Amino acid sequence: MSRPAAPAASPFRAQVPGGFSELAPGVHLWRSIVNSTVIVGRDAIAVIDTQVNRAAAGRLLTAIRGRFRQPVRWAVNTHYHWDHTNGNQLFADAGAVIVQGERTVHATATRQDRQKAFLRSRGFDLDPDPRPHDRTAEELGAIDLGGVTLELHRGHDAETADPTLVWVRESRVLCAGDTVMTGSFPILGQPNQREGFENEDWFAALAQVRDFAPVAVAPGHGPAADAGALDLFERTLRWIRDATVAEHAAGRPLAEAIARIEATLPDWIRTMSEVWGTPRYAVLRVWCGLADLGEPGFMHAKPPALPPARAPLPAAADIAGWREAGEQALEGGDPGLAAACAGALRDRWPDDADALAAAAELWLQASRSLRSVLEKGDCLRPALDALDRALAIEPGHGRARIARARSRILPALRSGDPTAGAEADLDRAADDHRLGARDHAEIHWLRGLARRARGDEDGASACLRRALRSDPGFAPALLALR
Fold first, then answer.
1. Do 426 and 401 contact (CB within 8 A), yes or no?
2. φ and ψ at 254, to 5 degrees?
3. Bridge partners for 97 per DSSP
4. Rg (CA), the chain
């Protein structure tokens, strides 16, 4: 007799990344949104890359202190990108010396503003600027942890033009930063900078990695890389680079080139998961090194992430009509049309909080059709701007505050980011007398998920039960309790 199938796991469970895997004795890879490598010597610990934000850095530091007795004395940034440097201040406060290559010091100083503009355009909340360096890699050359020596090498231009490679001499592990990425389609850099990839530089960088003959490579993102993973990564880069160069040489316009390349992707690329990077971003990175796009990078030239609307824009008469048209488009699998309805609501009623909140809801729902976190920014940024505008017009608008809170709390289940600001939105939303039972159920549900994101499961369950008292049929709360 067959057993009944186990119930599916709740889609609203906490999945905060983070965990150690040992690459070699004393060398531990911390897998999170971005990787950090923790290297333990007799006298001290070094951390290679300090995490995407201070909350993630705090989880890493807590894990280090719970597992190792040695103090963290060094933190090395492999390159200037924020996701690898945002925990610098926390590790400095814990007693670590912050180390960067001279090129990273320069890139941080000259590229900070454009990097922040790009991250904001994708809908990210930003911590304060990463703490600058204390010492340079060139000045130090090597770091002695007590029986464990870290050699600091100038890396060849790759994802960025400033990589520092960290070679753990005794265990023959190489910390490569974003010169190597595994596990999903690679990110391939900041889309608001021109950083190469139209030439052979990145392939020379991979040859440099192989020349160390490492027993393991700690990548900037993804699981530890062996020879097979390095080969797949290089094969992916070469296919994208060669296809894009050929399209440019044929004189085709950018949009046509992207469409042709996306239509002919080999299965081994097409089936890669897309978490951050996408083939389209990779094509654009090559292209902006081949053609003058008017300013650095390619975000200003990137085609919209959503497909064009399949149906014509309706002729709705009022806010309710446009909202309903957008919702019907989503139900019919046409997120492009839903986004067009959102744009119409914003443009026709730019000073109406109800219209702006409705537009934001449509953009937020349309973003769910996109796989890449970066591509979701095409919807998240206008949604968040619309919500900010709605709340500037009407600070007590409950639906706008709920939508803004939801946009922060749901990602926190995956990232572990703080939710205090979102919970303050929920407190304010609860005072809006226009809200109905379902709205109050959603407030309790989101409060429960916020508690779950920070590990308070008892508090989460209590809030979820309150949601069901407000609306016994509220499906998200039922799923969250599963």
1. yes
2. -55, -50
3. 74
4. 24
Residues β-bridged to residue 282: none
Question: If you search the block for the tokens 């085609």, which residue do you land on?
Answer: 303
- Average pLDDT estimate for 138-164: 97
Nearest to 435 by CA among 409, 396, 406: 396
Per-residue b/e over 324-356, b at no fewer than 16 CB within 10 Å? ebbbebbeeebbbbbbbbbbbbbeebeebbbbb
Element (H, E) at 107: helix 102-121
Domain boundaries 404-482, corresponding CATH code: 1.25.40
pLDDT reading at 211 higher than 70: yes
**DSSP at 98:** E
DSSP state, residue 8 = P
Residue 6 — pLDDT band, cuts 50, 70, 90? Answer: very low
Model confidence pLDDT, tens digit, residues 111-148: 888 888 889 999 988 889 999 999 999 999 999 999 99
Q: Give the span between the Cα atoms of 140 and 103, in whole angstroms.
A: 15
Q: How far apart are CA 96 and CA 101, in angstroms?
A: 16
Q: Distance between CA atoms of 281 and 274, rounded to whole angstroms?
A: 11
pLDDT interval class at 9 (50, 70, 90): low
Q: How many residues does the chain have?
A: 482
CATH architecture of 20-238: 4-Layer Sandwich (3.60)
Give the Å distances, CA to CA, from 64 to 18, 209, 229: 12, 27, 28
The whole-angstrom separation of Cα 133 and Cα 66 is: 26
C-alpha distance from residue 445 to each of 130, 283, 300, 423, 463 (Å): 34, 41, 38, 11, 6
Q: Distance between CA atoms of 112 and 129, rounded to whole angstroms?
A: 8
For 343: left if phi > 0, alpha if psi spans -120 to 50, otherwise beta; the answer is alpha
**Helix (H) or strand (E) run with residue 63 in it:** helix 54-67
